UniProtKB/TrEMBL annotation:
<dbReference type="InterPro" id="IPR047502">
    <property type="entry name" value="DD_TPGS1"/>
</dbReference>
<dbReference type="Pfam" id="PF02197">
    <property type="entry name" value="RIIa"/>
</dbReference>
<feature type="domain" description="Tubulin polyglutamylase complex subunit 1-like C-terminal">
    <location>
        <begin position="90"/>
        <end position="279"/>
    </location>
</feature>
<feature type="domain" description="RIIa">
    <location>
        <begin position="52"/>
        <end position="72"/>
    </location>
</feature>
<dbReference type="InterPro" id="IPR003117">
    <property type="entry name" value="cAMP_dep_PK_reg_su_I/II_a/b"/>
</dbReference>
<dbReference type="GO" id="GO:0008017">
    <property type="term" value="F:microtubule binding"/>
</dbReference>
<dbReference type="InterPro" id="IPR039235">
    <property type="entry name" value="TPGS1"/>
</dbReference>
<dbReference type="Pfam" id="PF24480">
    <property type="entry name" value="TPGS1_C"/>
</dbReference>
<dbReference type="InterPro" id="IPR057632">
    <property type="entry name" value="TPGS1_C"/>
</dbReference>
<protein>
    <submittedName>
        <fullName>TPGS1 polyglutamylase</fullName>
    </submittedName>
</protein>
Length: 282
């Protein structure tokens, strides 16, 4: 008991102080770091970025975050009200960025991103009622399609069906329909190119096989129970390996050789099948 009440020597006091200083310094460090994050609004920015990732569901989240923070820096005020509006090229680039964030098969995320692209092109709801004319709408559709695997003739034919006159106001549902149609055409042409490569191997594909696959492709595009252009998303499920194998087997029952079909002709015919099924915008 006397030992416990005995005053500490100067050396002992110094040792106790040395033990307490790191803990106190660490506590002060943690406090200052947390204070810095709050003052710089870093926590809120990171939370907002994560919410954007969950909302957009991009195919490449890391690239999405890099683009998000880059645009945040370039905007200066972080998109606050009162910031200078973007110019037309920047608005088109940002709208295209929104459209390509998520794959069109991820319907909720894709629709949400298309709505953001619509708002971006229409000027935003903060300053006035959203509205978009046919000129900007057509310009965005061309950027969605080009550059891309679809033949130029098919792209032009599709745009004639889904675009509006330059002076016309484009509602959101028409905007979404046109963007989705162009996005599906890009993937449709990509899949058609892969089919041709599988048929031809390292050279031109047999014309009889190509025609059989094109017939199977046309049958897969016919589905009256699904709305346009969502029915085209179901075509891939019908064009499974079994269905294609049966189509090619029927074509190969004749043992005669046939002429070759070029890749360009095959893509053009396949894209024409798709465009023929697209309902024109009225």
């Amino acid at each position: 008991q006397d030992g416990r009440n005995r005053p500490l020597s100067p050396a002992a006091k110094m040792a106790v102080c040395e033990k307490r200083q790191p803990a106190a310094a660490a506590a002060r460090g943690l406090g200052s770091e947390a204070q810095f994050l709050l003052q710089a609004d870093v926590t809120a920015m990171v939370r907002e970025a994560l919410l954007k990732v969950l909302e957009a569901r991009p195919e490449e989240p890391v690239a999405f975050l890099a683009d998000y923070f880059e645009k945040l820096v370039l905007s200066g005020a972080g998109g606050e009200a009162g910031a200078d509006p973007l110019g037309l090229p920047q608005r088109l680039a940002r709208a295209l960025w929104y459209v390509r964030l998520a794959h069109h098969s991820h319907r909720p995320a894709f629709s949400s991103n298309v709505a953001l692209a619509y708002e971006c092109l229409s000027g935003g709801a903060r300053r006035r009622r959203p509205g978009l004319d046919g000129r900007l709408y057509s310009e965005l559709l061309q950027r969605v399609c080009r550059p891309g695997p679809a033949p130029e003739e098919a792209v032009a034919a599709l745009l004639r069906k889904v675009q509006c006159r330059e002076h016309e106001a484009v509602p959101l549902d028409v905007f979404r329909y046109g963007v989705l149609s162009c996005a599906v055409l890009r993937e449709f042409a990509t899949k058609a190119g892969a089919l041709y490569d599988a048929l031809g191997g390292c050279g031109p594909a047999d014309k009889r096989l190509c025609q059989a696959v094109l017939r199977a492709l046309e049958e897969a595009l016919v589905d009256g129970d699904l709305p346009l252009p969502a029915r085209y998303l179901a075509a891939g499920a019908k064009l499974g390996p079994d269905g294609l194998a049966l189509a090619m087997d029927r074509a190969l029952r004749e043992r005669k050789l046939s002429d070759a079909m070029s890749r360009e002709e095959f893509l053009r015919k396949a894209a024409d099948l798709f465009v023929a099924k697209v309902r024109p915008v009225k």
